[in-house]
Amino acid sequence: MHQRRLHALDNKMRILTNSRIKRHLFILFVVWTGLFLLPLIYYITWIYPVYRVPKSASYEGLFECSYQPPLNLLFPSWTPAAQLPVAHVLLQQSNGTVEMVNGVKLMENFTWKLVPNTTHYVFSAFWDTRKDSFIRIISIIDKYRKAPSFCRVWHKTVGKDGKKNESNLRISTSLRKLSVEIIPKGGRYVCSILHCDVSKLLQPIAVSVVRDRSVKETGPPMLKVVDRQPNWIKGKDRQIIGVCIQTPLFDYKNFLKLVEAFEMYKILGAKHVTLYNYTGDPVLNHVLQGYVAQGFLDVIPWPLPREIRVNTSDGDDKQGVHYYAELAAVQDCLYRNMHKFKYIVFMDTDEVIVPRKTRVWMKMIKSLPQDVAGYYFKKAEFNLAKAKIRKNSTGHVDQRLLKYHPPYILTRHRFRLIFEFNKKCCFKSIVRPDKIWTMSIHWAEKADGPMHETKAYTGLTHHYRSHPMTKRLQTLDPYMTRYEGQLMSNIDNFMQSILNVTGQSH
């Protein structure tokens, strides 16, 4: 009996051992098969599509795209203007007449002004009545010094009879409290918005910033307060879409890149562009003046104070102001265009927010949620180092491409990094300006409502930049060729108009 039990137990152990061995062998087989198949799957899925050139897209006869505009070809006798700013500023005053305060004409002169007895600077002021009544003052604040705490406001008041008709109004001054909103990026000097409370005042027309209540200021106001037109009607006088170029121009010479970007914005639905000029090259003069003459562009001088070190890279210098004070330019553009456009697109000249299901921005926006303050768009980087232009169906290359050498959008086969930037830091935005209080570079810092994160298959930010030695996987993305004919015609028409104006047409 005992031997029978031992024999049965021995059989069970053998069966169990055999099953374990089989299980281990199966796991080992799966692991080794996986180790063999995974690289194969990886190659078939990612590497092969990227580097395989199908017959329909043969590279025979292609040439590398040139990124430097052929100046000798386009403008053989062009002598660039020696002086900056690179274009005129065509900005309307807040009304048809020039107001006078203390014998001084109230006009924007687009310079950074030093707040007396401080190391703080102010640039522009805007009247905001969305919630209560405030003057928003675009400024650069020295973090190492006490921020200003008061503003002196020149405003309209009614006469003795209490009537508010224009002929009966007079100008008074009031000292009001000031709050400081610092936009968190930078070194010693940070871009900020000063909020001057003007509730219960009739209409502010000018403002100065003072260090504290004890400072006695008797001089003229520092800034004209920008307001909408007196006869402005909400919904009637507001255009659909405007563009704010975020980074001020600095040492910028590639005018064809600018033309390509602006004409692309027109195709997508932009009615106007606002651009800030730090040290744009005079070679841009004729191009920018051409767009200003069209009413498509405002160029605002951006002469940063000499006393402030200007950081020229994204790395923050502890003593300077972040990247040409671009955050201040963004706030200025937001408030300057708040009543002009229903939507504002914030991006740089090497970026395009591209609808991936429709051809224009508004159709894309209409397909997205409407009860939001704006829309975020993920970024995809396109490698400038591998741009190619292909022959057309007749076996020839468009002669306009050979003539102008479009810098980045109009390449038929653009290598795009497969990786998409999903982080908030890499978004670009289309916003409803009447719902935005503060903008950052990549997102809305303060908004009156949620922001919608758009799926990449609906809209994507194309960022064109050089990655000469990138190790990231890339794929061909010819999506922008759908705009090729229209964009090339726009570029050619604009450049011909510039050549005719300068007397250099061929």
Automatic annotation (TrEMBL):
Keywords, ordered alphabetically: Glycosyltransferase, Membrane, Transferase, Transmembrane, Transmembrane helix
Family: Belongs to the glycosyltransferase 92 family.
Gene Ontology CC terms, in alphabetical order: cytoplasm; membrane
This enzyme's EC code(s): 2.4.1.-
Organism: Lingula anatina (Brachiopod)
InterPro entries: Glyco_transf_92
GO MF annotations, alphabetized: glycosyltransferase activity
Transmembrane stretches, start-end: 21-48
Subcellular location: Membrane
Keyword Transmembrane helix (UniProt): yes
UniProt-recorded name of the protein: Glycosyltransferase family 92 protein
Protein's membrane topology: Single-pass membrane protein
